[in-house]
Design a protein that fits this description.
Blueprint: H1 12-36, E1 80-86, H2 91-96, H3 100-108, E2 110-116, H4 123-132, H5 136-139, H6 158-164, E3 169-173, E4 189-192, H7 198-209, E5 215-220, H8 222-230, H9 235-257, E6 264-269, H10 284-287, E7 288-295, E8 302-303, H11 312-320
Parallel strand pairs: 1-5, 1-6, 2-8, 3-4, 3-5
Antiparallel strand pairs: 2-7, 6-7
Helix pairs in contact: 4-11, 7-9, 8-9
The chain binds zinc ion (ZN).
Length: about 350
Amino acid sequence: MKTHFFTWRRFTAIDQPLHILAAVLSVSVLCACNVNVPGFPAIIAPTVTTTPTSSPTPTVIPAETATPTISPTPLPKVERAVIISLDGLRPDGLLRANIPRISVLINGGASSFTARTVLPSGTLPGHASMVSGRCVSQHGIIWNDLVPSNEPLQGPTVFSIAKDAGLRTVMVVGKEKLITLARPGTVDSFRYEPDSVDERIVQTALDEAANGFGILFVHFILPDYFGHLNGWMSAEYLHGIDRDDAVVGTLVDGLETLGLLEDTLIVLTSDHGGHDFTHGTNLKEDMTIPWIVYGAGVLEGLALEVPVSIMDTAATVVWAMGWPVPADWAGRPVVEAFGLRAEQVPVPTADPYRCGI
Ligand SMILES: [Zn+2]
């Protein structure tokens, strides 16, 4: 019943950019032909009266800058990004809940309801991959509790990259252990709401947003809370999603009021799903997450058909912001959401067998 809203513009939205690209490529091919291929007039050919030699002088061809780069194709300007994580959100739970506000993001953006998290399907490993674009084997966050003696998340993250670009980074979370993601010097403001009330978390997030930001990470906990308490897909669990839908609406409205919605990219996803009263396994109920991207440059109403990983969150944000994606990231920008195909964009194409897919 809820699936109708992401099918209607599925192909019309992507057709136009591809037509434009095809036209550009055709023009490029024709221009190349004009240089050296027989049958085309020479460009400003000097008048030569001598007999052409059978072995023409080699043409000096400008060296191509063939070094692969991962600089992004120009996109509509993305000034800032908001990553919204609904802890423990199963996509089938999302689609069964009452979600008028998240539906606006789905209808107005690109989405996958078969995205995958990483193993173990827990809060810290999943969120570490979400913000670092790397597999658990790369970032090493295999524990799921706050262990202050353990090193925080190392390597580049959406936060460290944004900081390097001179932008303000903010985390507002409902679980203290997420401080593990905020390596010192990478997050300007880390706000933990100890009572885990998402309606309060969103107010804190808007307070922080009012100070401006490059990256705003907001973590809501109700689906996970009711999943553990009453069971995943229970009535209480679905009601928790209803509440978070309203909270997401409050966040979007608040950003708009602050004048910070335009030119903003929003990714809404989750760290893991769940089954019975738990999660952490490789069951598809634990591993499958929703992944919704909305905002500047994103096609409207697109159902993503490419495999999407939780790691793609960081890669998509970094790419859309115009920053180079670290070459060792397993996550890849979901350029399809912007009407592009992977082969059209000079970014690494992830191994289809990468972790979590
Ligand atoms: Zn949990």
